Amino acid sequence: MVEQADTLDTGNYFDRSTRIGGRERWATYVVFLSTGALIAGWAPLIPFARSHLGINEGELGILLLFLGSGSLIGMPVTGILTARFGCRPIIICGTFVTAATLLVLAVGTSFLGMAAALAVFGAAIGTIDVAMNIQAVIVEKRMRLSLMSGFHACYSIGGFIGAGGTSALLKLGSSPLRASLALGFLMVVAVSSQATGILPVASDREKTTPLFIIPTSLVLFIGLFSALVFMAEGAVLDWSGVFLLQYRRAEIYAAGYGYAAFAVAITAGRLMGDRLVNAVGGRCVVLGGGLIAAIGFVVALALPSQLCALIGFMLVGFGAANIIPLLFKAAGRQTSMPANLAVAAVTTLAYGGYMIGPALIGLVAHLVDLRVAFAMLAAIMVFVALAGRGYLPRQR
Fold first, then answer.
1. What residues does CATH 1.20.1250.20 cover in the chain?
2. Residue numbers in the chain where pLDDT is lower than 50
3. Which fold has domain 217-391?
4. Residue 358: its pLDDT value, please?
5. What is the 3-state secondary structure (H, E, C) of the chain?
C-alpha cells in the first residue's frame, strides 16, 4: 500500500504547450490566495445577512448548511469536470461565479433566495478548491519541488485579506454590496491575469483519464486522515471561543482570540512548511506535527490559564499546518487511480470532516463535557501522527 504512494510517475505526458515552470507556479499561488479571500469575504457579511433576513441563530445555522451542502456536491463533480475540460476553465469560471454570488449574499432579503445563493457559492468554492489542488499537485510533481505548503499558506493569507479587507471597508462606511464588489472585482482580475499559468489539463495522463472511478482503499485512507485533521481544525474554529469563556473565564470580546492564535500559527507553519519538508521529509513532518497538535490540545486542557490555552491553540495550528498539504500531495502521487479524481475524493472527504467534526464535538460536549471532546481530539492527532505518515511518499 505504501509502495503505491511512493511511486512518482516522471514520464513526459505534456506537450510543449503545457510545460510547467515559474508561470504556473505563480498562478497557483494567486489562485489559492484569491479563493481564500473570496470565501473569507462572506464572514463579515453574516451579521448583515442575519439582520436583513430577521432570523435567529438556529435559522442562521440552517441557512449555513446550504453552503456546506453546495460544496459537498461541487467537490466530487469537479474530478469529472476537470478530466474533461482541464483546470483553467473550471478555476476561472468558478471564480467569476463565486464573486458574482458574493454580491447576492451581500444584499439578499429572502431566506430561500439566500439559501440558493449559498448553495451556489459553496458549490463554486468547492469546485475551485478541488481544481486548484489538482493544479498544485501537477505543478509540484512536474517541477520536482516541495511547494504544497506554500500554496496552502497563500490560501490562509487570502483569508486574512478577504475578511480583514471587507471588514475594513465596512468600518469605513462602505455598504456590504460595495465591499463585496471591490473584493470580488480584485480577485477576478487577479485570477484572470494568471489564465495562461492555469493548466489546460488536469492529469498527467489526460487523454486516458476516465470520467469516474470508485476511490481505491489507499485514496479512502488518505481521505480519512484528511477528514480527521480537518475535524480538529473545525473544532478550534467553532469551539475554542466556548472553551475560553466556559473554562478559562475569558471576557466575551476575547472569545475569538483562540482561533486567531490558531490561524496565525497555521499560516506561519505553512510558510515555512516546504523548507521543513525538504529538510526532514514529509513523514517526519506528519509525525512531529501530529504530536505537536496533540500536545497543544493537552496544554489548553491541563494548564488553567487563558494564556496557556492560547499557546495550546497555537501549537495545534502549528502542528496541523502541513499535514493537509502533505496528504493532498500523497493523493496526487499515488498511482492506484488518476490524480485528479483522487484529489477530488480526498478533498470531499476532508471537507466532510470539517463539517461533521464540530457537530460531533458539540454532541460529546453536550453528553459529557467539552474537555472530554478536546481530549478525544488530542488522541485523534496522535493517531494521525503515528498512522497517517505511512500513506506518504518516501520522496521529500
1. 20-197, 217-391
2. 1-17, 206-207, 396
3. Growth Hormone; Chain: A; (1.20.1250)
4. 76
5. CHHHHHCCCCCCCCCHHHCCCHHHHHHHHHHHHHHHHHHHCCHHHHHHHHHHHCCCHHHHHHHHHHHHHHHHHHHHHHHHHHHHHCHHHHHHHHHHHHHHHHHHHHHCCCHHHHHHHHHHHHHHHHHHHHHHHHHHHHHHHHHCCCCHHHHHHHHHHHHHHHHHHHHHHHHCCCCHHHHHHHHHHHHHHHHHHCHHHCCCCCCCCCCCCCCCCCCCHHHHHHHHHHHHHHHHHHHHHHHHHHHHHHHCCCCHHHCCHHHHHHHHHHHHHHHCHHHHHHHHCHHHHHHHHHHHHHHHHHHHHHCCCHHHHHHHHHHHHHHHCCHHHHHHHHHHHCCCCCHHHHHHHHHHHHHHHHHHHHHHHHHHHHHCCHHHHHHHHHHHHHHHHHHHHHHCCCCC
